[in-house]
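note to self — DONT lose this again. spent like an hour looking for the file last time. sequence + predicted structure for the chain T wanted, 215 res
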Amino acid sequence: MVYGITIQIWYYQQKELNRVHPAPFEVTDKATIEAFIAAYPFAILTSMQAEKIEATHLPINRFSDGKLYAHVAKANPQAHISPVQEVCLIFNGPHAYISPNYYQNTQTVPTWNYAAVHIYGKVNYIDDVKTTWKLLEELIGIYEGKEGWALPKTDRLQDLTAHIRFIEITETRLKAKFKFNQNKSPEDRISVIEHLKDNHQKETASFMEQVNQRL
């Protein structure tokens, strides 16, 4: 009897998991996820501190050493997260409301299409001045490129580094979800894309086309 109850509990747990993260929407390909976080690096760092949820919007990037880094002002509560505390990084991509009128099939309800990646991990703070400066140089290079603005080594700017902390995130797990009507018919998906284009939501339409091409 206990065995039967255990099977039933497992079944409903799996059913609930699939409801929250249905298989058609789940993304597991590492290259796809890395390309996504590189394209949409302005993320949210969330943590639990002193029984309060803290959240900061900030750029989070994969650096040349293969690690994820962010930085915050030392006055930010998230400049003092415990190294044993798990944090969550939330990367958001294109999204849009989807009306039932967008489908060929009329037997449906409204929904929201979106792309998101959640990366969970632990933090390590970088306080060494030289390392902080090197990380700042690399961060600016990511956005400026080789021909763009470079960080000048002035005393004033170097003094400013005393007011920030770089955060190195060691990843422990991740969840990625691209929900773009993969559970609908090809005709419905094409119709949704066309409606998004007509509504001037070209970025979401283009992303959905890319997802559609992989089906």
